[in-house]
Structures are given as C-alpha cells and as structure tokens.
Input
Amino acid sequence: MYRLAFFISLILFSANTLACSCAEQPPSVHFSNASNVLNGRIMKLEILFDKDKRPYQKITLDNKSMLKGNYTKVIYSAMDGNACHGMSFSLGKEYVAFTDDSNWITGYCGGTQLIWDNFDFSEEFLKSIRALSPNKQINQDK
Output
C-alpha cells in the first residue's frame, strides 16, 4: 500500500515539475513582449552545453522574414524539460519564434509556435503577427 502511495505521489510531483501553465494571450501581447520575432524554417539543430553542463539548442532558421528586431538566423532554446523556458524544435518545420535580446526563445508561454501547413489556425496566427510587423517590405504572402 505504501509503495502504491509513493508511486502515485512521485508521478504527481513529476507532472507538476514538468508542466508549464500560462495564461492564453493574443499574438499581439507576445509580439509586444518579445525583442525579436522571426518566421522561418529550421535548417540546422545543434545540442550544446553551457558552463554548468546544461543542454540547450542552437537553432538555425532560413529566416523567411524578420518581423521585429535585429536580423538573425540563429536562436537558442533551453532544454530543461520545462516548456516555460524552452521547447523542442523539429528540423525542416516552420516556426514563428519570439526571442529576448540575446535571441533566447521565450518558450511556449512566450508565443513561439510551429506553423502547420494548411491549418487555418496557423495561417491566421502568422497573418496576425505579420500585420503587427513594422518590417512590411520583407514579409512574404503565404
């Protein structure tokens, strides 16, 4: 009986430590909170380690459009198992990424998301972000 209770407690504790809860916000809030906003396809993924041997991703995009901030093709994401601080990316997939001044993504709670081909919600999200961009001349119609 004690083993079962311990096992259930362990599962619940683990789920809470890995979960990230954030209030749903409109794209305009994510856009205004980010230093840089990029739209592009992932061309290269590298796993690197900081001085404390914590893993992180170095992500290189084709960078279709720089929607806000300083031009870059390289962004970074924590790999701490907590979507509040980082997220996993897939090679060859298109994303809208919201980053801070150092080009670290702001996690799922910061608005970064995969753009799904032929899905209305993704196309609407991308359209709304592009409408906010001061960089109108480099935006591409989708």
